[in-house]
Amino acid sequence: xxxxxxxxxxxxxxxxxxxxxxxxxxxxxxxxxxxxxxxxxxxxxxxxxxxxxxxxxxxxxxxxxxxxxxxxxxxxxxxxxxxxxxxxxxxxxxxxxxxxxxxxxxxxxxxxxxxxxxxxxxxxxxxxxxx
Length: 131
Ligand SMILES: Nc1ncnc2c1ncn2[C@@H]1O[C@H](COP(=O)(O)OP(=O)(O)O)[C@@H](O)[C@H]1O
Ligand SMILES: [Mg+2]
Prior knowledge:
Blueprint: E1 2-3, H1 7-23, H2 27-48, E2 51-60, E3 63-72, H3 80-83, H4 97-104, E4 107-113, E5 117-125
Antiparallel strand pairs: 1-2, 2-3, 3-5, 4-5
Helix pairs in contact: 1-2, 2-4
The structure holds adenosine-5'-diphosphate and magnesium ion.
The site of adenosine-5'-diphosphate has 22 residues, from helix 2 and helix 4.
């Protein structure tokens, strides 16, 4: 899903809702995934301008889940450690996007470099969060 204009965030939300439902997640986990994706897609739009969301179903042994990547070639996250703390924002944001996405998923990996862009991968496993 390309993220270029604000309405693409709606498309990203819809894609994640469908993919997560198809993967077998219940409504609570679907909402968690949609919320996390919404924040990460909005960050691309807000900070990088453009980028992409790529999702796929994943399997590891008995586990089955979903992986969603958010990739941009924007300015990068200058202070990643700070950015992961709730309430930190370099703009007028609430600073809950990155910590929220981490809390709402099972795994989150961030790769970012100044001037080179940001790649964020989140994963959620079926049955791993008790809902
Ligand atoms: N894709 C991105 N590219 C560059 N900087 C980012 C990106 N995503 C997040 N950031 C930086 O991390 C900070 C924290 O992000 P977030 O937790 O979503 O809070 P908010 O968006 O409300 O500021 C942002 O203020 C911004 O400086
Ligand atoms: Mg944000």
